[in-house]
Amino acid sequence: MTQKPTIRARHPIADTGIFTIEELDLEFANGVKRSYQRLVGSERGAVLVIPILGDDTLLLIREYTAGMNRYELAFPKGSVDVGEQPLDAANRELQEEVGYAARQLRLLTSMTIAPGYLYHTTHIVMARNLYPQRLPGDEPEPIEVVPWKIGDYRRLLERPDFTESRSIAGLYIIRDILMGPGNS
Amino acid sequence: MTQKPTIRARHPIADTGIFTIEELDLEFANGVKRSYQRLVGSERGAVLVIPILGDDTLLLIREYTAGMNRYELAFPKGSVDVGEQPLDAANRELQEEVGYAARQLRLLTSMTIAPGYLYHTTHIVMARNLYPQRLPGDEPEPIEVVPWKIGDYRRLLERPDFTESRSIAGLYIIRDILMGPGNS
Question: What are B130's strand-pairing partners?
Fold first, then answer.
């Protein structure tokens, strides 16, 4: 196992109110020195919620994404607030974005999205035993909720607006849980 | 279908040499106005390569990731250079990071990673019919290449250093291709 590089210095580079960027001066175990910039997200991370209505219906949302400047279909997600646990954040986002709460929440795994240059973790949470309950969100326009039968997952993967890698990974994970890797 | 918001203005916010951030002033179809910051990546995007040695062995790399400040196991990836096609970029990254070239390259799909605040696309490329061939890379220390039998994919998913969402999604996609969704 290689020994981790030593961080010789950390410099703040930019803080835009939304994005915080810092530079790390590193010395690798072989003596090579390099500086890298990285985007520093919250220690608390984010949640991606996979809501299952009944036994076989996923609830997706379709909303405008400013990064790509287009509408995207994906599982609901959001940041974990101060003092909040990931499962509570998942249940809150579910109520804000989908209009349901869950009696059963389970952390399936945690993912990174660009570990080379982004400090960020997303907790993937399965939500079941849903009941209608809404919390006010801060979206500029109503979010469209799109129900999707798990048996029809291939057609979802083929959609040009279902591109977000955490949602794609989450779909495969939930397909194996609901259908079994041998029953699809 | 909701009508896409109109971009009323775009302002550069920060450019660190590595990261470019801009602000979009948007007006939604319902008249609501919002400003969003986004990180603007390259139009050319990136590639993630899934190299398959023989019929059943994936080639992963283990390298230090500055964003997370730890070693991560993942499929090789990198940016598409100016004038390069995604399949050529995939073959170049494969030679630089893994020490193989591919006679067969196939674009499987394209993904985003954080469409809400990041303009970025990664092309997922399957590489087969490999032969040893190395191009010099720019890594600060040698990259460890980790072969992994596809039949053992569950153990890979359980590893605490296999967290990157594009690699997880890519692993499921290649599992279905190599083993079939009904043979795992």
Answer: B102
- Does B184 map to a domain? no
Q: What is the mean pLDDT of residues B99-105?
A: 98
Specify if A1 maps to a domain: no
Give helix then strand counts, H and E, for chain B: 3, 11
DSSP state for residue A56 in the 8-state scheme = T
Q: Could you say which residues from 82 to 101 on chain B have a Cβ atom under 8 Å away from some Cβ of chain A? A: none
Task: Give the per-residue pLDDT at A58.
Answer: 98
Give per-residue pLDDT as tens, B110-123: 999 999 999 999 99
Q: Do A112 and B164 touch (CB under 8 A)?
A: yes
Residue type at position A44: R
Smallest Cβ distance to A67: which of B32, B117, B163?
Answer: B117
B57 with B106, same domain? yes
Which of A2, A66, A182 lies nearest to residue B141, judging by beta carbons?
Answer: A2
Q: Determine whether B75 is exposed, middle or buried from the number of CB atoms within 10 Å of its CB (0-12, 13-18, 19+).
A: buried
- Tell me the chain A residues in contact with residue B117 when contact means C-beta distances shorter than 8 Å: 18, 66-67
Domain that holds residue B11: 6-40
Identify the sign of the CA torsion B81, B82, B88, B92: negative
Average of per-residue pLDDT values in chain A = 96
